[in-house]
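Quick start: what a row looks like.
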Amino acid sequence: MSWRASVEELNHRRALVARMGAPEKVERQRAAGKLNVRERIDLLLDEGSFREIGSITGRAQYDADGKLVDLASSNFIFGSGRIDARPVVVAADDFTVRGGAADGSTGGKMSASEQMACELRMPLVRLIDGGGGSIRTVEELGRTYVPANPAWEWVVRNLETVPVASLVLGSIGGFASARAVASHYSVMVRGTTHMFIAGPAVVTRTGDTYTKDELGSPELHAKAGAVDDIADSEADAMARAARFLSYLPGSVYELPPRGPCSDPVDRCDDHLIDIVPTDRRKVYKMREILAKTLDEGSFFEMGSRFGRSAITGLARLDGYPVAVFASDPYHYGGAWTADTAQKVKRFVDMAETFHLPVVHFVDIPGFLIGLEAEQAATIRHGASVLSAIYQATVPWCSILVRKVFGVAGAAHSNATRFRYRYAWPSGDWGSIPLEGGIEAAYRSDIAASPDPAAALAEITARLEAVRSPFRTSEAFGVEEIIDPRQTRPLLCEFAENAQRLLRPEPTRVQYRP
């Protein structure tokens, strides 16, 4: 055979593999409103940039003379490409071949995709549309086998080396679900996707019966914190993943890329001076504060349905990427729950991993209290997030918007580092709020009074007189109280100052999902 003939044979094999699964399975995928695996890759990547690895890997059939009769595609496709001109590795399941089952991929391609991302220091995007192991494999092998998680050593290394985004694009279970959540950003598509440890058919054997939506809908997992986001379509999911990656370096050996900024750094919004109510019992919209201080349109929220007393997301200040988290007084008044603590810990660890300066907008009345909070081990999770904050070495700036109370409030920054922070005149802080704390501290005085209500009122008035944040500032207990309208200029200055402290190297924090 001539070399020209060999190239023709190569192209023939590629054409066979490009058919993907059986025609009826490909059509079933389309009828379900889902793209096929190659359409997904084309949609995700810059046009013409995909370079496949293992392009003719598959199950071959030969006749008696050793001539190729057919070549069935592998159910796993990977290679390199570009998103917005930046190199990435893409790894994609093909549900039309053996349902994308993890043990059906050929030749260690999954491990190779993870290893490629890690060793070449390129972000990894997983397009996940498959299950875990398949019982069919047992029959084909003629034996059972001790399970192993393929590529998991590379999965772990990737989490501390390169940005990883996982897109759930079908009904997935088992190992595929583990791959989905072992990422820095995960998204499911509303209406066409599900995620399970084990699906309804398996769960039925335990005596419980559920529909796919009841057991594994995007809404369930976003609320539980298993995934970070919900997209309206596959195209939307890919756009969100691309936007997520735009804030991050290619690996821990680079710094986050500065983007263009047309938003003036000296922009001062008059609405900021009135946004926090003078009545401490009333709430306000923290996201409005973010919109009026961060680069216009730059805030990319993550995990909005989980741990909702904290808002987390990526943003830019004068074009510089930053990690932002903020209190949301609409949920428990901003008090940190066990879920909130877990969410913030994971987010801070990601910021530390990828050299993102942190901006924290603070309104924390403390940890959530009560029986449910105790049953949820809130203090255990709270101590864990405190450790993450104290282990972080990235530049950190806190804006004390209103409440800063107790152990959770003290977690607004690492108190042993230089306190790069600014307080608004609405600041209100202490070990515990006066409301409720007075009754505990002055119980005997109030009980001994002939008029307990009058005694409580007199003590409250006395303490209110020293509650002003200006008194704290007089003692240098808070470094600087600012006009809220000056927040954006000061934060942009912080983002610029932070750049000289960032180092393109691995950190001591080992990221875990």
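That is the whole record. The chain has 21 helices and 18 strands. The CA atoms of residues 187 and 422 lie 35 Å apart.
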